[in-house]
Specification:
The protein is mainly α and 129 residues long. It has a domain of 83 residues. It is built from three helices and two strands; from the N terminus they run E-H-H-E-H. It is flat and about 75 Å long. The two termini are 44 Å apart. It holds the Pfam family DUF7318. Keywords: Membrane, Transmembrane, Transmembrane helix.
């Protein structure tokens, strides 16, 4: 679904999410796996697994699996349950916000003022802001 509006803030494209049942079940299963690994990590911390070298590496591996599982949960949620929306935004030049007035956007001539003031403005753009 597209709109013809081109003013600032108009929705240019809106695609509704798919909301598939398979993705919902995958998120539920990954959440159960996440809870199991968080429980194992907590049990390992309380049990003192981190005091030995092998246990410390095992806890690090469990923590890595926890974050990878969480990344897959968030990826599936974003892909399947959030709409794809493109909003029209105002394009600005990178340096446009350095100047106060619109007539200052293009800068000033090097020879208009005294040479020293021109050099100061060229080297320090926030001069007299």
């Amino acid at each position: 679904m597209s709109s013809e509006g081109s003013s600032y803030g108009d929705i240019h494209r809106y695609e509704p999410p798919r909301e598939s049942t398979a993705a919902a079940l995958a998120i539920v299963l990954l959440t159960v796996v996440e809870i199991i690994f968080v429980g194992m990590f907590t049990y390992g911390l309380i049990g003192g697994w981190g005091l030995s070298e092998v246990g410390n590496m095992f806890l690090g591996g469990i923590l890595a699996v926890i974050f990878i599982d969480l990344a897959f949960i968030l990826l599936l949620y974003r892909k399947e349950f959030l709409p794809d929306v493109m909003i029209v935004k105002k394009r600005r030049r990178k340096w446009e916000d350095l100047y106060i007035r619109e007539d200052q956007v293009d800068g000033t001539s090097f020879t208009e003022e005294s040479p020293w003031e021109g050099v100061k403005r060229a080297l320090y753009p926030y001069y007299k802001r």
